[in-house]
Each structure stands twice: as C-alpha cells, then as structure tokens.
Sequence to fold (246 residues):
Amino acid sequence: MSLIEFKNVSKAFGENQVLIGMNLAIEQGETITIIGGSGTGKSVTLKLLLGVIKPDEGDILFKGESVVEMTGEALIEMRSHIGMLFQGAALFDSLTVEENVAYPILEHYKYADEKVRRIVREKLTVVGLDDTEDMYPADLSGGMKKRVGLARAIATNPEVILYDEPTTGLDPANTNRIAELILKLQKELKVTSVVVTHDMATAFKISNRLALLHNKKIEFVGTVDEVKRSRNPVVQNFIEGEIGGE
Fold:
C-alpha cells in the first residue's frame, strides 16, 4: 500500500478547473518532485493532501485513510505526521527563531518548556543554525529564513515533509544548501518528501521520482533517468523550457 494516494481527484475554483481525474501514488521514504507550469495545480495538490481544501471528486488517502472524510481531531492527528516548508518560509515576524520552531511542537504536544527548548536546539543544529534562537526573522537572510522554516517543518519528527518551491528566490549557494538538506533529511530521518518546484537542477538532484502535472492531470511519472530519456513531447518540452529559461 502506498503511503499517500490521489485517486481520480478533481478540483475547480469557480470556472477555473485545476485538476481533472488526477492520480498519483507516493511511496514511503521516497522524494517525489511534482513539476509543471505555473497554475497547473502543484500547490493545490499539497493543500489537498493537508485537507486544507477538499476535492470536488475523488479521494486522497494517507496510510489508507481518507483525508477527504477526516474532520476535527482526525485532521489534526493526520497533520501532526506532516511538516511543511512554505514558499516564503512563512515565519512569524513577531516571534523569535526559537518561538517559530517551537510553534508546531506546542500546537501538537504538551511538553515541558525545557524539552521544547531542547528539541528546538536539536532541529536548528540539523539545519546548521546553532545559536540563532534569540534572533528574529528580520535579522535573517533569505537562506536562513528557509532553514528556520525547515527546522520548524521537522520539529515534530514528521513522517512526511512537503516543500512548496523551497529554492525560490535563493542564490546558487543557498539553493544547493537547501537541496543538500532535503537529501540529508531523507537519509537520516527516513522521511517521505513531496517537493513542488520549478528548479529542475534541484529536482534532478534530490528526487527519486518526478511527476509532471500537465493538462489538469499527471502526465508522466518516472525516475530522473526516465524523465531525461523520455520521448514524451510534453516532458521534453517542459524540461527543455525550464532548463533553457534559467
């Protein structure tokens, strides 16, 4: 059984039909990257998995349980297994780094203050940001903000991490650092990673498989080598367009 499965999922916002009969299975422990043009539904796919929005048709399964049918406590419990790195890191400006990273821990667990502080320090060490607990987001570079966001995403030891455009706006050095962290977390924490990105160099570096969203459904799923060797004209055009446009 796949860890996550989208089954014939359709979603529209008013007249804008984003997904029609979309199917995708995600296996435990893999890093799968969802690629596709702007407005093809990549970020919507992440929101559907989190249960933030519901599909118009179809189902989404997490460990065999329907996310669509979950409400209240069941959704909160499901989300405690999932961490997310938002596109802009989405840190709270009025909170310190320590308070930002602690936020999901306090949301899901009733730990003593000292245990929370210890977990925060551990996660900041993982992302290479020791001794930044008392800093505020305004004090951080773009790359540091992403890494604080990643520390927050792994604060509850999730089984799954969702990455929404993790390298957007970063210089090459920080882009590479984030890619290395994604690989490190998969290797050391055995997490399942679902990545949405336009950055094909990063996608090729971190992914076990890639899934191309095109024409409101998954057009192609394959390993990095399979994507590079694909004769599918949609795949070829997308890869050449994205790499050529960098």
Remarks:
- The longest helix spans residues 172-189.
- The chain is about 40% helix and 25% strand.
- Strands lie at 4-13, 16-26, 31-35, 57-62, 65-66, 82-85, 160-164, 192-196, 209-214, 217-222.
- The radius of gyration is 18 Å.
